[in-house]
């Protein structure tokens, strides 16, 4: 009897795993709870207008980037992306800084706003980009962290270069320490500029962010950031079509409710009590959602790291979905923005938001004369834990976020034709992520690198991919974890 793998969750991580398994001719079934592929990078439509559910900025499509590398290995063509010269505008209360892909232009822009810090800023970014380049060399071969098998240790060791030793002083260091090293720790606006970039990519700020991963995050934008026509759901749909063409069975509206072992195989049951038997399972779910599916005997087999991290809090998100008339969009308006509404440094609860706008020519998103936009902010899920708090706070954040968007688009109210708030409950409904949690664990010293979760759960034949495991959130991170999970299944099948 052929060995069967079930993928639970049709996000980009799960679909990446499915594509690599299907490419090798293995028997694969993908069960997705919603009616869309892509998970947090999915989409929804209202009439003629299409909105990305969550993630919007494309990364890893440059030559040698993660998506480029994985698509080449699959022989999968993907041409929906366009390179951005201006990645985003970052709006501080008293200044707006354009984030250029070109490093020299970016340095010139930052120095224009902080002329008294020129020497310190140049030294800081020289340090950051040197460290980021070494991290890139280390992770380019896609090693697994933390390594759990001889094969994974071997792959990690072959990734090491003599220059990797330069990373050792930073392993137990934070981004705050790097700022202090260069005398920038008390430069409020500059620290906020750095924190704005870290909160969206690392899920934390410089005070706690791993120096190694923070340096990589501040380097990778300069390798290339992209607008993806329609949205990042295109990655998911290309992967789903690829897997289906190679024999994978794809099922939407199949919400898995339980996993247990029976007669030597795993049995998966969905919301309609339909069962599927498998030899391997790859779950593309956040850790708490994954553990909630397991029978008690399987929970007992989980690794110590999995059990330890299960109760830890993850971020939620509040997102606004807007439709505006083209006429109110400023000329030469970048497609991505970060906006901070005060000098407190709070990067959550609507005081910082990430705004993305559809390209004028993107007919998938909106008809001529209109644009669709999303604006999102991190939020503490404890602030939403009763109906009374939920309804009140949803209104508070909606108003706060609309006011912030007007910083970037002053005539917003003149051209706003529709908007829909997406609070954590809506995210839970759409993605089936418990409580509406997003983004995985913050990339602090406690949760990053060798302290990350492996895709190996401790249960033989069951793997986890997605933003809870190494290398973390974002389409790059979840794709790598999906790839790792698929390769572990394939190695086991070959053995």
UniProtKB/TrEMBL annotation:
Q: Which InterPro entries match?
A: Amino_oxidase, CrtISO-like, FAD/NAD-bd_sf
Residue ranges constituting the Amine oxidase domain according to the UniProt record? 12-490
Any GO MF annotation of the entry: oxidoreductase activity
Q: One biological process GO term for this chain? A: carotenoid metabolic process
Name assigned to this protein: Amine oxidase domain-containing protein
Source species: Metabacillus indicus
């Amino acid at each position: 009897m052929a060995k069967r793998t079930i993928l639970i969750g049709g996000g980009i991580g799960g679909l990446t795993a499915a594509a690599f398994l299907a490419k090798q001719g293995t028997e694969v079934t993908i069960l997705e709870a919603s009616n869309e592929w892509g998970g947090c990078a999915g989409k929804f439509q209202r009439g003629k207008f299409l909105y990305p559910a969550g993630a919007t900025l494309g990364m890893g499509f440059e030559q040698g980037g993660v998506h480029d590398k994985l698509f080449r290995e699959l022989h999968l063509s993907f041409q929906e992306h366009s390179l951005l010269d201006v990645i985003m505008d970052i709006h501080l209360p008293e200044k707006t800084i354009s984030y250029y892909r070109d490093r020299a232009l970016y340095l010139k822009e930052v120095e224009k706003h902080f002329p008294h810090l020129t020497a310190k800023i140049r030294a800081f970014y020289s340090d950051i980009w040197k460290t980021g380049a070494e991290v890139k060399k280390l992770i380019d071969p896609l090693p697994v962290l933390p390594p759990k098998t001889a094969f994974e240790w071997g792959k990690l060791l072959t990734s090491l270069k003599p220059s990797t030793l330069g990373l050792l002083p930073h392993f137990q260091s934070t981004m705050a320490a790097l700022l202090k090293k260069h005398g920038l720790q008390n430069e409020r606006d500059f620290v906020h500029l750095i924190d704005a970039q870290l909160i969206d990519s690392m899920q934390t700020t410089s005070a706690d962010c791993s120096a190694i991963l923070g340096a990589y995050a501040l380097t990778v934008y300069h390798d290339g950031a992209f607008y993806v026509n329609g949205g990042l759901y295109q990655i998911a749909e290309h992967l789903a079509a690829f897997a289906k063409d190679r024999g994978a069975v794809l099922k939407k509206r199949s919400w898995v409710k339980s996993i247990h072992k029976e007669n030597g195989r795993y049995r998966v049951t969905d919301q309609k009590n339909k069962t599927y038997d498998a030899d391997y399972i790859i779950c593309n779910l956040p850790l708490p959602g994954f553990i909630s599916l397991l029978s008690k005997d399987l929970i007992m087999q989980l690794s110590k790291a999995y059990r330890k991290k299960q109760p830890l809090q993850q971020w939620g998100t509040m997102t606004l979905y807007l439709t505006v008339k083209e006429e109110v969009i400023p000329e030469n308006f970048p497609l991505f923005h970060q906006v901070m509404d005060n000098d407190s440094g709070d990067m959550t609860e609507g005081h910082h938001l990430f705004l993305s706008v559809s390209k004028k020519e993107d007919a998938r998103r909106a008809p001529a004369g209109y644009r669709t936009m999303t604006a999102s902010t991190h939020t503490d899920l404890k602030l939403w834990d009763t109906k009374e708090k939920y309804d009140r706070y949803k209104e508070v954040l909606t108003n706060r976020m609309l006011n912030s968007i007007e910083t970037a688009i002053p005539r917003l109210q003149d051209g706003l034709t529709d908007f829909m708030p997406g609070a954590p409950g809506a995210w839970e409904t759409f993605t089936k992520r418990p409580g509406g949690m997003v983004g995985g664990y913050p990339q602090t010293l406690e949760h990053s690198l060798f302290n990350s979760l492996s895709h190996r759960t401790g249960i033989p034949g069951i793997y986890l991919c997605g933003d809870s495991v190494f290398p973390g959130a974002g389409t790059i991170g979840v794709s790598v974890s999906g790839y790792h999970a698929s390769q572990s299944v394939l190695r086991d099948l070959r053995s």
